[in-house]
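Worked Example 4.2. Consider the chain below.
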Amino acid sequence: MKTKRLARTASRLPRRGHVLVTVSVVDENGFTSQYETVEVPVGALREGVAAIHLAAVDAADEADSRSA
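Applying the procedure from the previous section yields the following structure tokens:
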């Protein structure tokens, strides 16, 4: 007896060493922009997140120095 195999749905998997990333941005006015899901290498994602983190820390330090 043959078994019925289910067809794969619309799921998408990244290649080895890559990740699927969707970027959402909220601006200072509260507007949200969501960008298309892209496939990027893991290393590029780590570098991008590190750069965003460093920029946020610098902006927070700058805001603190202005308020003091």
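The longest helix spans residues 42-67. The mean pLDDT is 86. Compare this with Example 4.1 before moving on.
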